[in-house]
Design a protein that fits this description.
Blueprint lengths: L8 E5 L15 E7 L8 H10 L9 E6 L5 H19 L13 H21 L4
């Protein structure tokens, strides 16, 4: 997990929700912006991976953005935003293992055939014979 928080920029705005009259006066909502292409912490391959996996969160200018307004204070929202964006980028860098296709064993094939045979015999025995 790389800490690229030095490259992040922040914007504040008035948030909705709990806070009473304070909501109308104080800018507690925090939007964190990060320019993926200009990052010095990641290689070009990692940047491409981030841009492909998070393309729905990256705007036309190439900024990854995230808005947090969970808390009543700007500082807590800023800390949560940093944690979340680092977590999102970390998850996007994870590459899943390729699945190796395997064939069923002889015993499994035989068991499947045996159960099919038993079921067909059971159904055959239910029939009325003249």
């Amino acid at each position: 997990m790389k800490d690229f928080s030095k490259e992040l920029s922040f914007r504040t705005s008035r948030s909705s929700g709990a806070g009473g009259q304070n909501v109308n006066k104080v800018e507690t909502s925090v939007t964190v912006l990060w320019n993926v292409a200009a990052s010095e912490f990641f290689t070009d391959e990692q940047k491409d991976l981030i841009q492909n996996k998070l393309k729905n969160r990256i705007n036309a200018d190439g900024f990854l953005f995230l808005t947090v307004s969970e808390s009543r204070t700007q500082l807590m929202n800023k800390n949560k935003a940093i944690e979340k964006i680092i977590e999102i980028v970390d998850k996007s860098l994870w590459i899943s293992k390729k699945r190796i296709a395997t064939k069923p064993s002889k015993a499994k094939k035989q068991k499947r055939l045996d159960t099919k045979k038993k079921l067909s015999e059971k159904k055959e025995n239910r029939r009325f014979k003249f």
